[in-house]
Structure formats: structure tokens, C-alpha cells
Amino acid sequence: MLSLFGLGALLLRGSGCTVNDLLDRDIDQKVQRTKLRPIACGTLTPLQGICFLGIQLLLGLGVLLQLNNFSRILGASSLLLVGSYPLMKRFTFWPQAYLGLTFNWGALLGWAAIKGNLDLTVVLPLYASGICWTLVYDTIYAHQDKEDDLKVGIKSTALRFGDQTQTWLSGFGVACISCLTLSGFNADMGWPFYAVMTTAAGHLAWQILTVDISSRADCNRKFVSNKWFGALVFSGVLLGKLTTA
């Protein structure tokens, strides 16, 4: 089941990126960091991109069909989010929040696939923590493009928060760790979970307090470091569950 969800996550995020590249190809040509993306620079045609998206969705359907009926419905419902996310930056300064709703859908789907239902006391704080984490790392990511975004007229939390970014991200970081802890408590996690969450909180705090939002290189470095935050959370859940098995 773990490998199935790993593949499903890869396909979901990949299809989201493909949709994004298709819809934003004209914008990507005007942004320094994205102008060499395959569709934006003409290496691939939009038709080839659509064909690739079709392959991703078919493979995703294959994964979804391995799950129970409730999970199939829940998983299919995420396609609305995946398809509409790329449009959000045109209408709201909060596309990162919408990305959080989209990319963290697996928090609901994973529980449903194992249990056949949703325990809201566990999955809602878990989902909320993922949204807050996404707001942290994707706002840092968005600071790389803020000058270009202003030129082409698209919106982001990086532009919304501006010089108050650290304050906003601190709030989201606290909410992320708090919701993770609450979810773990409601799921009866063992003590290693809480020990590892302390380390994860330290890593998140390091990102938020030391990121230089005026440096593209440092923003990218902090963004990439979130792989370690994710690894810590995964380790905490695994160890916390093993001690109560």
C-alpha cells in the first residue's frame, strides 16, 4: 500500500505540474526561472503535453482502481482541484493555499484506503497541517519569482506577505506542528512520534527564521530542504506507530 501511494502521489503531483505548464506556457515564457520549461520554450508542443497528461491520468486511474470504492470516489474528486489550481494565481493572492488543498488530498485518501472511512479527528488536523506546511514552503519558493510575477500580473502569497513574510510563515509553521501533534495524539501515536516532531519543528523554524527572501539561491535552498522535514514527519509516524503495534 505504501508503494502504491508513493506512485499515486508522484502521478498526482506530476499531472498537476503538466496542467500547470500547459495553462501557464505564455506566462512561463516571461519568467526567468520558468522560460526553459519544455512547453514554454517549444521543446514540446501543447498536444504532446496533453498526450503526456493523458498517460499520467491513465496510470493514476490504475492506482485508484486498486483501492476500495470510497477511496475511488474520494480520489477522483481531487481532479477538480488539480485541474483548477493553475488558474488561481490569476485571481487570488492565495494560490499557495489552493495548492495546499490540492497536494495534501492524500492525507484524506490514505486513511480512507486503509480504513474505508474518514476519522475526522485524525485526518482533518493532518490535512490542515499539510496545507500550512505548503503555505510555508511554497511561499518561500514564490519569492524567487516575485519580480517577474509583478511584471506579468500574477499573484502569490510572496507578494501578499511582502516584508511580513517571516511573521506569516511563523504562524503557519506553528499551526502545522500543532495540527500534526493533534493528529498524532488522536491517532494514539507512541512517544517517538512526539520526539521526532520536536526535531521537525526545529527544522521548520530554521527555514522560516533564516531564509533570505531577497536571495533566489537561498529561497531555493530552503525550499529544497523541505525533503528533510517530510522525511522527519514520515519517520515520526512510522516510529510512533511501531511502538504501539
Structure description:
The chain is mostly helical and 245 residues long. The chain contains 14 helices and no strands. The protein starts with a helix and ends with a helix. Helix content is 76%, strand content 0%. Helix 5 packs antiparallel against helix 7 and helix 7 packs antiparallel against helix 8.
How would you summarize the topology of this molecule?
Layout: H1 2-23, H2 25-28, H3 38-41, H4 46-64, H5 69-84, H6 95-103, H7 106-115, H8 120-142, H9 146-152, H10 157-161, H11 165-186, H12 191-210, H13 216-224, H14 226-242
Helix pairs in contact: 1-4, 5-7, 6-8, 7-8, 8-11, 8-13, 11-12, 12-14
Helix content: over 70%
Q: Termini separation (Å)?
A: 18 Å
Number of helices: 14
Q: Largest beta sheet, briefly?
A: none
Radius of gyration: 19 Å
Strand % is under 5%
Overall pLDDT score: 91
**Poorly predicted residue ranges:** none
Q: What letter string, H or E per element, gives the SSE order?
A: HHHHHHHHHHHHHH
Principal-axis shape: globular
Query: What's the number of extended β-strand segments?
Result: 0
Class per helix and strand makeup: mainly alpha
In short:
The chain is mainly α.
